[in-house]
Amino acid sequence: MIGIAGFYRTKCDFKESPVWHYKLKEMKESLSKHEGEFFLYPHAGMASTDSSVIYPGLSSIFLCGELYNADELLGLLASYPKSGETNSDAAIILNGYLALGIDFFKNLSGSFAFAIYDELNDSLLIARDALSTKPLFYQQAESVFVFGSAQKSLFAFGIPPLADRESFCEVLGLGPARTTGHGVFWSMREVLPGHVIVKGPDYFREEAFFELKATKHLDTAEETKEKVAWLINDNVKRQINPTHALGVLLSGGLDSSLVASIAQRELNKSGSRLKSFSFDFTGSKDDFKPNDFQSSLDRPFAQLVADAIGSEHTYLECDSLAQADYLEKAVDARDLPCMADIESSLLYFSHLVRKDCRVVLSGEGADELFGGYPWFHKKELLKKNTFPWSYDLTIRTNLFKEDFLEGLKLPEYVSCAYEKSVAETPRFLGDDETEARRREIAWLNIRWVMETLNNRLNRTSTAAGLIARTPLVDKRLLQYVYNIPWPLKCENGLTKSLLINAGAGLLPKEILSRKKSPYPKTYDTAYENIVAKRLMERVTDSASPLRQIADVKKIAAFIAGGFNYGKPWYGQLMAGPQMLAYLLQIDYWMRKYRLSI
What percent of the chain has pLDDT over 70? Predict the structure, then answer.
């Protein structure tokens, strides 16, 4: 995967012993064995598989990701002195820091995580973009401060992977989401979105360089529509690099279709053609069962958009065996149990897309910003005093041992996480009770759903060597849309009306009126049978760590009772078969890291 890693300590000289060189090399190779570089200082070790800039005796930056407003930033820095390289994204960030300090980070727009070693002040800075599109973990390992883009990079340093009660509460009570800033493994943390951590010889400081603000919306309805459309267009254009062949993950839904249409129109200026990719599963035409969450297959709608905009379209399929086989690979990519086959299939598809394309755009993030999920609309979900996408914990807990669950106290842990998140909601005093609740739901979606899906896309794409960009996950768009009153977001009761307006004249009417359909999943009974058989083999094996926590008889009864697709235990897609797949991932995760309760 693409990432950064390193460590910092002042009361030693890392260059005195070859062990530190070896540790840094191992950390880098845990991310990628084939690319990147690392550099050892007396008080810091830095590695990147992406890009770096070193100003000897001054400062160095190791970057994962990219900026989308580099030209603006270069203009801002035009009157300041530069040190060496000036135009790369890493150099822009480093020169900005040297000129303006941490305040410069407020101007950054992009998808990034970076580390700066300030040699003059003998301090380390690590930072993460405003919308958490790039992960960045850290941990104090005795006297050494260790960081990395993946948990595995910290383990490569020598930190043992350990789990405690909170770890299992995160995985079983909140998973596949997790608390913002929680690294799941014992004592591991993650840099908060839009934050920078400064570690010095005798201090640790954390500061926010981006915070979402709740303000009064002053624009008229027409001005609001125009600005939203302009921001979306501008975001797509910023993320197109004419020197790279560009692809788009096209589902045929409103969000990805809008991104694809704008991208193709921009590429038309240079005579280039967009590569579009849609996903589905072998046998879906025959196996698909319409339900409240997924009313139609994507393929005909994706083809309709591809024909309308003139993209070069490729239809990709995944069979049930590959999807099941990739469940463990998805855990390897995420370092945690994740979105079961919803994630394993995306990892599989990412490898296929990478054969044709290096950079792709995605429509991810629109539902969280514009209110596309049912919990924005259905009163019974809107009023739930818990996370509306996983409000019934019994679907999870029914398969685990009673004494284990009593020790975890899952309901209390989940309730505490929910209440803490709600309390952090950026609020506007002028909101009435209903609008205030919609802000809470919007904030919960940004903090939990968006971060989960960002993690899924980042880990699966980078594991395949693919660069995935999300034009609708943008801090300017977030700041503006968060403050638009609900009657404008859902004009005349029309879900995502602002996006529909932005797509008018760009997309076929069938796409503008299509009911939301999430990322596809398989309905093949062969897949159900594969995961059921594998899970029973695991839990009947005395060496399985899952036996410590799961009730074998309850799992057998659950399998014998058939699979319910209509009541997801997480989000809109993760129902019965995904519960079994998630248990398989938990078993593999515990075995891989030798975790116990």
Answer: 98
| Tokens standing for residue 83 | 């040190």
- Residue 10 has which token pair? 């002042």
482 Cβ contact list (under 8 Å, min separation 6) = 212, 214, 369, 426, 439, 442, 446
Q: How far apart are CA 260 and CA 520, in angstroms?
A: 18
The tokens of 469 are what? 């960009």
* Neighbour-count burial for 63-87, b at 16+ CB within 10 Å, e otherwise: bbbbbbbbeebbebbeeeebbeeee
Q: How many angstroms separate the CA atoms of 498 and 304, rounded?
A: 22
Beta bridge partners of 139: 146
Half-sphere CA count of 454, side-chain side, radius 13 A? 28
Count of C-beta atoms within a 10 Å radius of residue 509: 9
Q: Which two tokens stand for residue 475?
A: 């801090």
Look at residue 293 in the predicted model and tell me its pLDDT.
65
Helical spans, DSSP H, in 39-141: 70-76, 89-100
Per-residue confidence (pLDDT) for residue 563, from 0 to 100? 66
Task: State residue 86's pLDDT score.
Answer: 74
Q: Is 438 in contact with 376 (CB distance < 8 Å)?
A: yes
Stated length of the chain: 597
Q: What phi, psi does 582 have (nearest 5°)?
A: -65, -40
Q: Report in angstroms the alpha-carbon separations of 573 from 209, 294, 336, 559, 566.
A: 35, 8, 19, 18, 9
Strand order in the sheet with 110-118: 51-55, 59-67, 110-118, 123-128, 195-200, 203-208
Kind plus residue range of the DSSP H or E element containing 593: helix 576-593
Look at the pTM and tell me if it is higher than 0.85.
yes
167 close to 185: Cβ distance less than 8 angstroms: yes
> Which residues have C-beta within 8 Å of that of residue 287, sequence separation ≥ 6?
281, 522, 523, 524, 525
Of 118, 112, 121, nearest to 73 (Cα)?
Answer: 112
Q: What is the DSSP letter of 191?
A: P
Q: List the one residue out of 460, 465, 454 whose CA is nearest residue 318.
A: 460
Distance CA 231, CA 239 (A): 12
Task: Please tell me the distance from the alpha carbon of residue 318 to that of residue 593, in angstroms, as a whole number.
Answer: 29
Q: Distance between alpha carbon 85 and the CA centroid of its chain, in Å?
A: 31
**What is d(CA 361, CA 239) in angstroms, rounded to the nearest whole number?**
8
* C-alpha dihedral (257, 259, 261, 267), degrees to nearest 10: -150
Using alpha carbons only, give the angle 249, 369, 252 rounded to the nearest 5 degrees. 30
Query: What is the residue-averaged pLDDT of the chain?
Result: 94
